[in-house]
Structure formats: structure tokens, C-alpha cells
Design a protein that fits this description.
By secondary structure, the chain is of the alpha+beta class. Helices cover about 30% and strands about 20% of the residues. The chain is globular, with a radius of gyration of 13 Å. The model has no long low-confidence stretch (mean pLDDT about 90).
Length: about 70
């Protein structure tokens, strides 16, 4: 699966890990001890999020690419 959803990656000092959020997929998040690990895990979580939504008959948002924040 080609991942085309925008992700937001940041360091959580409180948790001592990198956090990855996927704004277009509600509740879709991942974390990892390194940047690379967090991104790798996020790719898997995105795939699982989409597969689960399809299996439950729920809509899957089309990736919009870069989101604009006000």
C-alpha cells in the first residue's frame, strides 16, 4: 500500500519518544524511540487503520496531501 497521508512528527519530552499523528485519519497515531522507528510504525498503523475501516464498512478519507492550518 502506498501511504499518501500527511503525518505530523514531533518529540514528546514527557514520553521520551517521537510521536506521529495522522490528522486525516481520526485517532491514528504511533510512537517510537527514534524518528525512523516512529515513521515505520506509523506506516503500519496507517495500513491497519485503512484495512480495519474497510472491513467494518466505514468510509476511508482520500489523502488530501498537505493540510492547511489557520
Amino acid at each position: 500500500m502506498s501511504i499518501k497521508y500527511e503525518v505530523i512528527i514531533y518529540w514528546s519530552k514527557e514520553d521520551d519518544v517521537f510521536i506521529v499523528e495522522v490528522p486525516e485519519l481520526p485517532g491514528c497515531m504511533a510512537d517510537g524511540l527514534t524518528y525512523e522507528e516512529a515513521v515505520t510504525i506509523a506506516q503500519r498503523v496507517i495500513e491497519e487503520w485503512v484495512e480495519t475501516a474497510y472491513s467494518l464498512g466505514r468510509p476511508v478519507p482520500e489523502p488530501k496531501g498537505r493540510l492547511m492550518y489557520a
